Amino acid sequence: MDLAAIELKAKKSKSLLEDDRFKETVQDLREMQLSVFASSSASEVEQREDAHAIIRALNEIGYLLQADLNAEKMFWRVRGKGVHVWSLEQAYFETDESEIDLPPLPASQEIL
Predict the structure, then answer these.
(1) Is the CA virtual torsion 85, 88, 93, 95 positive or negative?
(2) pLDDT for position 72
(3) Above 70 in pLDDT, residue 30?
(4) 76 falls within a domain
(5) Is residue 108 part of a domain?
(6) Of 56 and 2, more confident
(7) What is the 3-state secondary structure (H, E, C) of 40-97?
(8) Most CB atoms within 10 A, among 17, 35, 53, 91?
């Protein structure tokens, strides 16, 4: 997956995670399923299993959205290795003719 696709996915995931209506809906669903646990009788095993599956699904949705955000950070950590000045040997700087190749900056970020 290229950087543009990773950034787009991260942007969409961040938008969802910050959306108040989305957060309220997930919280309401979670509370509804927790009340199923609290109010179910001993014989209502299937209802508790369904509630448990829904809570696990909500957790997985959150994990996947967060993973999209983390993927962009990991992309830059992996791609950016070796471009830092302190990681280069001293001999690299002995001539004025050499240039350090830096990764391209995304156009969507503002640079100070």
Answers:
(1) negative
(2) 75
(3) yes
(4) no
(5) no
(6) 56
(7) CCCCCHHHHHHHHHHHHHHHHHHHHHHHHHHHHHHHHHHHCCCCCHHHCCHHHHCCCC
(8) 17
